Structure formats: C-alpha cells, structure tokens
C-alpha cells in the first residue's frame, strides 16, 4: 500500500494513493509512503521542507513503520467505494465482478480488505485465463473520507491455446496408454474453457471427448460443465466383455463440498471371445443409462500425497433410470471415511480408512432382478488407498477385479484341438455389497538424503470383501459368513512422492484369499494420483 501525499488531520483517517500488490494468494502486501494518523492527533511539521539523501530514506522508513504499527495494533476502518477493472480486453467485467466484488466490498477494515484481496487474487488465478493479476487500493473520493477504490488489473493469457501429451504405464495391467489434450481458453469472454482429449491404451481402453467448462454464467452462481465422450473399455481378461460408451454429461452444481451431475449414456456390452459366463451373457447388448449423481465431500487432511493429520469424508449417491422406463434402473450408494494421526517419532503418521458401498436394482421385484455388472463394486488393483477418496476399490496384493464372486466361462473348443481342452477360466462378476478398510503407517527413513527428497517408508494392512445381493441372493446372505471370508493383505514399501503422483514399491503378503481370487505375494509397483 502506498500514499504519496500527507493526509490532513481528520477524524476519520484514510489512505491516499494506496497500492496493494498481491501477485499470489500467499503474498504479503508491501507498504510504502503511507501514513495513518492515530486519533487525529499526529501531525508532521515542516511539510514544505524537502528532504533528500539519508534524511529522506529515514523519513520513509518511519512512515512505513508507522503504517505497520497501526495495522498490527488496531483495526483501521475502511469502506470500498468502487471496484475498477482494467486490462481485460476479452474477459467480461461481470465475470470478474461476480468472482470477487462482493468479497472485497464486505471487508470492514484495512486488515480484512488485505486478506480479501489475497483471496480474490487466488480466485482469479483459478479461472486459468489470466497470466497475471494485480490488486491496487487507491484513495476514494475526497468528499468521502475513509473510503478506497479497489483497482483490479489483469493480464489475459497471451496464448489461449494449450496442450499436453504423454505416455503412461499401468503396471498392474501390464499396459501402456498414449494420452493427449488440447484446451482453448476464454473463447467468448466468460472464462469458458473448451477442451478436446483422447487416449489410446494398448489392450485396455480408448477414449475421445470434447467439453466446455463455465465458471459462472449469467445469474447461475456455480460452475457449469458439459461433455460428450466416446470410449471403449476392454474387460475381456477379467470379465469376458468389452464396454463401449457414447454419452453426454452435464455438471449442474459444483462447490467446495457438493457436486451434482447428470449423465445420459448409450452403453453396449459385447463378447468377441464368445466364452463369457452365463451371468455376463445375460447382460450383453445395448442399454440406455440416464443417471443423476450427487457427491458430498469434506477433506481436511494436510496433504493428499502424504497425510499426517486431519480427516476426510465422501458420500456418493447415484440413481439410474431417470425419465426412461426401458433403461438401466438402480440405486448406488458409496461411503468413504478416513483420518490421519501424527505419532511424534520419525515424522510417523497413522492413516486409517473404511469404505462401504451397495447397489440395488430398482423396479417391481427389484431384489430378484440383476444389477448392471459395470456399475457393481470391484476390489483389487495396485493403486494406493491413502491418496484419494476413491480407495474403496483398492486392495493391495490382488489383481484388478481379482476378488469376489466368480462364474466359470463357457468352454469353446478349438478347431485344431485334440480330446483335451484347457480350463476356460472364470469371470469376475463384482459385488452388490462391498466393504474395505486399510491402515497405513508412514515414517521417515534414517538417511538424510531420502528425507530431503521426501522419500519415506510405510507398512500397511488392507482388507475387504464383496457379496452378491441381487437375483434373490440376499436370502443367502449371512453377516458372520461375510466377516469370515474377508480377504486381507499386509506389507511394507518405499514411497517416492512427486508433484503429480505417488510412486510405491511394495512387498505384499497375502494373508487371506478365497479359492478363485487372484492374489499374489511379492514385489508390486503402484502409481497413484490424488485426483
């Protein structure tokens, strides 16, 4: 904040020509040449006398110290008279005002205004359409003492087009994928971001999509999103089907804790191998999925890659079959709760979490109907349960979709086959009820080189189980049997955190598995993202 002239003694002191530069949310404001009169009694003598050299520098330091002393001792009342926006040649004024104007005008003191300006700068940067943001506090009209004008200067992105591409590996599936995306920012001046993305995975998945994101539109106070996508997912190795999806998704509500979206998807399940089990064959063909999905999320952990304290909770509810009598009808509910506690030695922390989910078909005689296989719960895979709030499916030591109810595949004799035939294998069908839990103890390694790089160790224990409830199987469900058949694994490993993801090298030991589960004791690699 800066003032270039000495204010006269008023009952309501105010800053004049004050500047506040906040380049980032964490930046402390810099003050210079600012003077506040305390109780209207402080006067500077010999104002007409010009100082130069060391004397001028000393006077300048005294003025700055006076400002800091006043701001640190008592609140300084102030009122925002106007918010002025500069530098936006394409971005509309109403977008910037909607993001920050109310926040700035609500500040009753200089101290609160400084904090509000810091938050406002962070909000404008999050729009991802500005290269730089500067907020300046200028003097208000002379006839309105104790007021200020807030000047917001933005520098719009020099190149609105950006892109990225990369090759990513999935060790648990022994596959690679090529992914790329293009973004066009602020095309119409509403902070709109248009994107096109595509990915190609060898023997796994292919997806292309286009979408648009609006942080605000007209009087709608929350971001809006729309996306069209076409994808193909190969589950032949695990469940003997390929899944193709053509869909539209619309983000209806998005805040810090709430997210509501609608999906309209045309789904096709096929079996090129013609060897799928009866349970899979009954679900092959085309279906329409019209679903509403609501997510409530709280995450108070101090880190997503290595939490040492705090808690997190997520609840996801999905209803399928809206406005369509012939589409897939089901209700799906999932909970995930976890917490981290510091232990006070070697920077150790204990992370524990529990997840549970259930899916039920809807309609007449729903408990005797079948739930859609792609929407069921599956356990297994090598992703870490610690990072994100989607850890319900993670069960270290077990292959992807390697746990739960199975059914034998159909035997398809080979034309050149002799009398003997190889075992047809089994399809993993997933479960209508899922429960999983984990405990993870992280700790620093003794070598300083590792500690400086953030490399640390951990010991873990994971457990989970699946059960089928649809098609009348709820009659055979037993809580005691469900508890007795819990799968579990334990192990130790080394974690290499990066800015984007968490790499784990683990030794997993299978404590308990069922007859047809696909679990393996040994070294496993894990690449997990908190997103």
From TrEMBL:
Its main location: mitochondrion. Residues 1-59 are annotated as: Disordered. InterPro entries: Bac_surfAg_D15, BamA/TamA_POTRA, D15-like. It is a multi-pass membrane protein. The keyword Cytoplasm does not apply. Belongs to the SAM50/omp85 family. This is Bacterial surface antigen (D15) domain-containing protein.
